[in-house]
Structure formats: C-alpha cells, structure tokens
Amino acid sequence: MNSVRSVGRPAAFFDLDKTIIAKSSVMAFGRSFYQGGLISRRAMLKSSYAQFMYLIGGADHDQMERMRIYLSQMCQGWDVEQVKGIVAETLHDLIDPLIYEEAAALIDEHHNAGRDVVIVSSSGSEVVEPIGEMLGADHVIATRMVVADGRFTGEIEYYAYGPAKAAAIADLAATAGYDLSSSFAYSDSATDLPMLEEVGHPCVVNPDRALRKEATTRGWPILEFNNPVSLRSRVGLAGARTPVVAAAGLGAGVAAGLVWYARRRSRALG
Description:
The chain is an alpha/beta fold. It has one domain (11-269): HAD superfamily/HAD-like (Rossmann fold, 3-Layer(aba) Sandwich). 45% of the residues lie in helices and 16% in strands. The protein has helices at 30-35, 41-57, 61-74, 80-94, 101-112, 125-135, 163-176, 193-197, 209-218, 252-269, and strands at 11-14, 116-124, 139-148, 151-158, 184-187, 201-205, 222-223. The radius of gyration is 18 Å and the shape is globular. The relative contact order is 0.18.
C-alpha cells in the first residue's frame, strides 16, 4: 500500500467497466457516435469487435495501450459539445440497462454508511461524468483529452490507468480528507492492482484470470455481479447523492452477505 494516507472518513472507489456496468462505457456509444456522424461504419464495427473481445477476455496492459491509441486517434477532431450532447441524449437508453443491480446496491450501502463513492475509470470524462451523476457518485476520476478550439486534438492530458489511478486516489484523499486505510476499492482487472493496493479493503468483481489468482493468494473478497437490469424506475436522476436503489431489498444486508460469501469462497479456494 502507498504510504500516503489521510486521517479522516473512509470512501469507496469503483472501477466502472465490468465492475458497475456490464460493458465498456465508451464503446457502448459506438452506434450513437456513428449515427451522429463522428465515426464511419467500419470504425463502428471495429468498436463492436473490440467490445466483444473485451467482454470475453478482459484487457491486459498491452490491450489497454492499444485501446488508448485507437480511441485517441478515433476522436481526433471531434467537436466536444457534440460528443457531450450525444452522450446526454443516449445515456439512459444505453447505460441504464447495463448497470449491475449488485453494484447499485453496494453503492447505496456505502452512501447509507456515510461513505463517499468515487468512480475511477480509464474511459473519457465526457462519458464517465454523466454516468457518475446518474449513479449519484460524489467524485469522478477519468481520462481527460486535450481540447483546442472546442475539439479533441487526439492527445491525452491524463490517462486514468494503472499507477495513475492509485496516484489520483491518493491526491483526492489528501484534499477530501479520506482515510484510505479504512476505505474500499472494487475492480475487475489486474491492471487495477495499484488502485486496489491503495486501500485497506480491496474487493475484486468479476475478475479476470490474473486478478482472480491474485485475489485468491491475498485472501481478498471475490464478488460475482451477473444481473444487469434497467434501474430507470429506481435511479434518482436529479443529481449526486441521490440513493441509487430505493427499498429494493438489496441494501446493506445483501451487500454484506455478498462480502461474507466471497470471503468464504476465497479462503476455500486458497
């Protein structure tokens, strides 16, 4: 764990793709970007293929680097306001049905316990911030692209990936007053090991093979989220700090049960 710590209250840090939602958040908008004239049909199909490969195999370091290069090249010259408009118009139709009900319940549990919820994602801020608002997240850490004259240049100002995620969490903890030694973190990918190591309570969700092995060795809880459902009727859309799940029977008791079961399973596998 990093030596930088803040004395204060705990927080909960969530990866986004395949942890809170069942797909890659950026690639979920591929068809919408195509319909908006931002990408070609070929690029849309390539995006769909990349989504498929990501879902079945996850993303290691080399794949994440290829994805970073591909996305930065693809969005070069895009009008930023047009992108934000497309995301706003299609957000609930595309993302709402992809949210894991188990993740929504866990977010709600952390809020009810007085913990801030922070989404930490390698996807672009133009996509992650509206999703964070929809989920009631208190803060969002996401990749930021360089913008000039209202358009993306194709360069990346900050890439929220690997050790950079951990560093951003430490910086936020210092300013927001979080005690990382009593905080929680959730992710599906071994590339997020630095983020998981940054907190006192790391948990893995739908882990890839490398992360499952690491979690089993370290005795970390392993959670399986497999119920993406539309939360439209239960998600508060007014803004941050609105409870994600209201009286759905999946509150603190079920979330605690998931953690208890995961710990037993991890110990059995070990």
